[in-house]
Amino acid sequence: MISSHLPALQVVIPLLAAPLCIVVHRAKAAWVIALVVSWASLAISVRLLERVLQEGVVVYSMGGWAAPWGIEYRIDEINAFLLLIVSGGSALVLLFARVSVEREIEAERRYVFYTMWLLCLTGLLGIAITGDAFNVFVFLEISSLSSYVMISLGSDRRGLMAAFRYLIVGTIGATFILIGIGLLYMMTGTLNMADLAERLPAVADTRTVKVAFWFFAVGIGTKMALFPLHFWLPNAYAYAPSAASAFLAASATKVAVYVWLRFYFSVFGASFSFDAMSLSDILLPLGLVAALVGSAVAVFQQDVKRMLAYSSVAQIGYMAVGISFVSVNGLIGAIVHLFNHALMKAALFMVLGCVFYRLGSVALRDLDGLGRQMPWTMAAFVAGGLSLIGVPSSAGFISKWYLILAALESGSWPIAFLVLLSSLLAVVYVWRVVEAAYFRAPLDDPSRRVVEAPVSLLVPVWLLVAANFYFGLETSLTVGVAERAARTLLGAGG
Q1: Are 340 and 399 contacting, i.e. CB atoms less than 8 angstroms apart?
Q2: pTM for the complete prediction?
Q3: pLDDT greater than 90 at residue 70
Q4: 41 contacts: CB under 8 Å, gap ≥ 6
Q5: How far apart are CA 122 and CA 108, in angstroms?
Q6: Which residues are CB-neighbours of 136 under 8 A, at least 6 positions away?
Q7: Cα(325)–Cα(336) distance, rounded to whole angstroms?
Q8: Which of 59, 133, 232, 322 could form a disulfide with 169 if both were Cys (CB 3.0 to 4.6 A apart)?
Q9: What is the pLDDT of residue 104?
């Protein structure tokens, strides 16, 4: 029965579709293939999440070989939720991508872009679904290598240098992860993550396991752009094609945060990670600094895509803070923020794609008076910005509320204050765009005739904007799944 093979199909379908885009060699056909595959992946993700919520952990053995000898796909609440984020982000951004890509990428390169998109999707879904530590590395490299190519395909040649820097930093991060995996295999003789979790306590006090622990911390921290390992991210997001920026912002760093959760809670165990190795003593200050510095630097950016990129550094800081509390509310805040940040950043980067489509620029100085010329586009930015700030009734409010609850229940009033302060900084940089668009006169340039973005670009943008407020009011899915995932990660039952 095909439903029993859904975990394998989640990875196999986009993997087989990627070379098909090369074979067809036509941009529109490649886009259709990518779109159909992404929506199929989203349907599979929804079904897998339903199964996990109804039946518990879903286990799939590749080729019928039982773990730990064979490769196992193991799906619980946290990675089922992540599959939904990644496939949903791909499906919605691809609705936007066709027209945007025609504006930003040369005709002969467009089918390559969609090929890389599907490979990136394969890698991200594979990381989320696999129960094998080495396969995490393999899928991580598939997603990373394809990301480098997507970033470099834009019309801005600075994207080449951004992709090269990302390549160098990403390779170093991946090498650290691979060394960590190798050291764990040397001590336990297994690569299956569930098996690792059972065998590691017997050798947890060895220097080898402790060294592996910190190799993972640096490697995964680099991939998730945790301060101060974030320096590859601003240029990568700023100079990539708009569709690529939206997709990567919605998915890539979220998957890296998931890898952090998976290894430090499920494999090493929360007790070893946060008690014996005192990981919170490092993660909490880094998360707070990321939230404050990322937001402060965003205030001074003149390129709005770079502004949102530094904002992403701050948002990753929030997730790190939530994880560092090692509590149910802290993890709920971090996990819900994975979902909410994907919604808000995909919407905002797509808004900038609309602006770039009409202006060929997203510089702040070029946005003067744009609220009158592109009212629907800029209204979407305002709505997405409200969610980014975390105003009540928006998705961004929910996750920040749980982070503040976690801080207060741990007696950390200063941390709650710093989270609020970072949100106030978000008000400042969002306001800079609002001020330019609504409170300044349009540029007096006879050659510049700006009209609203095409409907084909606006529809997916407003779907995501609506989702930002729907999930700010209806939290049963996001908070419900996040709470079950948090209790599972903390070993308090599913």
Answers
A1: yes
A2: 0.90
A3: no
A4: 10, 13, 14, 83, 87, 90, 91, 121, 125
A5: 23
A6: 127, 130, 177, 181, 259
A7: 15
A8: 232
A9: 83
